[in-house]
Structure formats: C-alpha cells, structure tokens
Amino acid sequence: MGSFPFSLADLEAIAPEIIVALGACLVLVWGAIESARKRPRHFAALTLLTVILAAVALVSLAPEASEGNTYLAGMIVLDSFGIFFSAIFLIAAALAVGASMRFLDDHDAHHPEFYFFMLCAVLGMLVMSRSINFISLFVGLELQALSVYVMVGYLKADKKSNEAGLKYLILGGFSSAIFLYGISLLYAATGSLALDGIREVILAEGLQDQYLMIAALVLIAAALAFKVAAVPFHVWAPDAYSGGPTPVSLFITVASKAAAFAVLLRVFLIALSPMRDSWSLLLAVVAVATMSLGNIAALTQDNIKRMLAYSSIAHAGYALMGVVAASTVDPDDASFAVAAVLYYLFAYTFMNIGAWSVVALLRRRGLAGEKLEDYAGLASRSYWAFAAMLLFLLSLGGIPPTAGFLGKWYVFTATIQSGWTWLAVVGVVNTAISLYYYLRIVIVMSMSEPADDVELVHSTPLTMTLVAAVLMTLLAGIWVSPFIEWVRGATLLLS
Amino acid sequence: MQGLPSESTLANQSLWPLGVYALLVLAMLAAVVIISALIGPRHSARRRDLPYESGMPPTGTAALRFPVHFYVVALAFLIFDLEVAFLFAWAVAARDVGWLGYIELVVFIVMLLAGLVYLWAKGALDWGASPANAATPVAEEIDG
C-alpha cells in the first residue's frame, strides 16, 4: 500500500481554485433542485460569495508569493504574477455578476446555469494564469474556452447569440487544436512540457531542431494570437462580442483576454525566451496589424457593441507592444515592460467593464440598445450615465487623468526604452485615430436629440458595478503609486 | 520530465519506409476501385438500389424526426462511459499512486455525481410519462 503523500501545502496553494470549483458545483446542483426561476438572485449572491471567498484565499496566499514555490508536481506555481491575474479575473467576475442580473431578468434568461458557466470560466482562467506546465495550462485554457462558448451563445431565443456562440466554438476549437499541435512539436524538440524545462533544454543544447522549434513557435503564437483576438486571427471577435449577451461580452473582453495574456507572457518570456530574436519581430508585426486594423475598423461601425469589440482588438494590440518590449535582453527593461503590460491590462479591466456596463444599461424596446443612435441625447436623459460613459471613453482613448492614459504612457515608455521606437510611434498614431470614434460616441450622446423608445434601466447591482468601474478608472489614473508598486512586484521572475 | 534522447530521432531517421507504405496504400486503393469497375457485374434492377433492411422492404425515409431526449441520454451515457476509462486507468496504477490517487479519483467521481444530480433533477432521466413529455406524444412524432 502506498504511503500518504498527500500534502496540505498543495491544497492550500490552490485554495482559490478549490473554492471556485465548489461554488460552481453548488450553484449547479442547488439550481437544479430548487425551482430556480423564481429566485435567480440567490444564485447571483452565491456566485458573488464564492468570488469573495476565493479573493480572501488569494489575499491570504499573497505573502508567500515572493518565494515562487511550485505545487502539484510542478504544475502550479504560487507567484505574484499569478496572483495579480487571479485578482483581475475575480474582480471582473464580481463586476460582471452585477452587470448581468437585470439584463438576464429583462431577457427572461436568468438561470443558475449562467453563473455556473461563469464560475467555470473563472476556474479555468485561474488555472491558466498559475500554470507553469503545458498540460495544466491547456486544461485551464479549455475549461475557460468551453465555458465562454456557452456563455456567448447563452440567449437561446436570440439567433445572433446562437450564431456568435457557434462561430466562437468552431474557430476556438480550431485554435485550441493548433495550440496543442504547437505544444506537441515543442515536446518533440525538447522532451519537456514544463515551461522552465523547455527553456533549460534550449539553453543547454541550442536550437538543434531549429525548423521544428520555429514551427512550434509559429503554431503557439497563432493560437495565442487567436485567444487574445490579435490580427490576423481576430475575425471571430466582433461577431462573438457583439452577438453575445452584453454582460458576457463585458466579462470576456476583459477576463478571457487577460487570461490569454497571462499565458502569452509566461510561454514567451519563460519557455521561449531563448528564441526571443525569432518571435519579437513576429509579435511586433502582429501588434501593429492588430492596433491599426482594430482602430480603422472601429471607425466605420454604427453598432456600439461592434465598435467596442474592434476597440478591444486594438487594445490587445497596445498590450502586445508591451510584450514585444519585454523581449529585450536587459532584465530591468524587460521587467519594466512586463509591468507596463500588467498595468495596461489592469486599467483596461475597469474602463472596458465600465463602457460595456453603460451599454448594458440602455434598452431599446426592452432589449439591448446597441445602435449608435440609441445613445443620442444620453446627456440630457441621465447626466450620470453620460458622465460615466464619457470617463470610460476618455480612458479608452488614453486621455489624462484616467487609468487608460497612464497605461498607454507606461506601455509606450517601455517600448521606447527597449529600443522599439518605431513601434511606439505606430502606437501613438493609433491612439490619435482611436480618439475619433470614441469622441464620436460622445458627440452623439451630447449633441443629438434623445430617441423616444430608448430607456435606461436602473438596477442597484449594475449601478454598483458602474460606480466601482468609475472609481477605479479614476483612482488608477490619479493615485497611482500603490498600483504601480503592485505591478512592479508582479513581474515575472526572469532570469 | 525526463528528456528524449538528446539526438532527436525525428530529424535523423530516414523516412523512406513511410513513403513506400503510403504509395502501397494508394496503389492498393486504386487497384480495388479500378479492378472492380472493370470486371464487376453490371445489371440494374429496382430492388438493387433499395437500402438493405434485412430483406424487408423499407418502410420510409431514414431522415425522420425523433425526440431530442435520445440525444441527452446518449450524451449522459458517454460521459459516464468515459468515467470508466479513467477508473480502469486508475485501477492499473492503484497501488503506485496510493491514497493521493484514491482521493483524487473520489473528487473526480463526486464532481461527476454533481452532474448526475443535475441531470436527474432536470428530468433528463425521466422516460416517457412525465407531464412535460406527455405534451408531445412521441409515437406521433415518429410517424410524422
């Protein structure tokens, strides 16, 4: 009989994941037993409670994070980088619950399953951001992706939502297969699935199977570019984001994207760091294409959800610039660049959630108001909604004193410091282009006459989400030092 | 994380047996198709084009509507069938993985049990007589 190798330290280290998994099961089973349609709010509260408990567990883990210990046979790491991303996912989930409740009520689709899938997606993201082995990384990625496909297609009666979910499922499955193929080639070339193991093999033996490694690199880059919705693998994003329910888009444009960036940073800056000369230019080209296409396509949109979808593509491009900057050999500059990406994603979390929750606030004949003309005269209708939207749009456009300005400034500085000046110039030009369509919304909101059949639906949870987003967008732009300290501490332990 | 032999086998090994094999497969397939087209008997009768149903005349098209219920049951069956695959994999290594493996397996089964409870409570396992199913008579749908 085997001994008892069961270590409590392992369980302690994955406490947030365990809590979220238990919460998800509880929501599912309780929701099936209880006639849930009558009291869906209980499940929202349970989800929120789960997220808060997981956050408490995360905070209690934080002091040990600086040691960077690995758990579960080297699958999961406890480091401040993982904690930072875990915090983003939990915050996004909590805010998304607030934005979802009234929306789902109004669409007659408030079922406990929604929260089950949201918790499953969060669980997958937590695993993604803390994995240092391709096996657990892929399991987390798939759990996240499968849950998100269902959430995008969640509105059963809505054909657009169905179409979006199906498209996302098919293309997403395809990209996961590509990712897996890349992983298998990497294993064939190096004989390891651990991120640092792969790096050590490459460092020790050089690039023996150079073509195999390049093929693996390209496949992995393509799959991750799909997950962050980078050009040329972005085509699913506008359909999925604009077809899916607004609160789901709010959640996935932020959380799924951040999770994909966590994987991207870990894979490229740890496993593939010896190949940085091969991938830095590749990612730079992708970043330029992503920013430019995202912003130019957003210029012509008349549907605000599609416009925000293209804007989120563009923002992935800005963040990718930071990843390119982090490819530099100088460890200080690299760590600064990673910190810039993290800060950018942090700022983006709040400003993007804020903008999408204003979209969730607006209804046209009872359903989501998503045409640009629905926003006409918002300023005269509700001053506060207008002011909040103005703040989020300015932040997305990168205007001080908001978090978005600081995020952009930080990323551009890191890019220039690492010697990618031309890339930073492209980024600045793109920022200027993006202001046009952000301000176009502002002009429609403030200058036009309000439409008759559009209304604002107020609900306390959504208001709380909005208030939190407003506060954090301002706070992270003005009182910056604690946040900057946080992201500086959360940069990867590069060696 | 033990590495492969440091000289990767992929690049060095010669691939010509695989190529010969692929060519043989293609030649075989082509031979089957061409020879049967050349020397096969050729006569047309109405009954020859009918689908084979154990000698009985076919009763209707195969593209009929059947209750979506079957799909759910088949899906549930697959999930629990797959569970058995994991159980066997664990059983082979039961002594080596010890209590940790046992506990992990129990966690896995409890998770699946949550799924079973969900299926049950949602009525996916009720066959036929429940009020929800009675609303759409199954027999009529098959005939139509």
Briefly say what this structure is.
The complex is a heterodimer of chains A (about 500) and B (about 140). Chain A is mainly α and about 500 residues long. Helix content of chain A is about 75%, strand content about 0%.
Structure description:
The complex is a heterodimer of chains A (495) and B (144). Chain A is mainly α. Chain A has helices at residues 8-13, 15-33, 40-61, 80-106, 112-130, 134-152, 159-190, 195-205, 210-227, 236-243, 246-271, 276-299, 304-325, 331-361, 378-381, 383-397, 403-417, 421-447, 460-478, 481-489, and strands at 70-71, 76-77, 362-364, 367-368, 454-456. Chain A has 20 helices and five strands. Chain A is globular and about 70 Å long. The two termini of chain A are 42 Å apart. Chain B is an all-alpha fold and 144 residues long. Chain B has a domain at 68-143. Chain B starts with 8 loop residues before the first helix and ends with a helix. Classes of the chains: A mainly alpha (495), B mainly alpha (144). Chains A and B meet through helix 2, helix 7 and helix 8 of A and helix 4 of B.
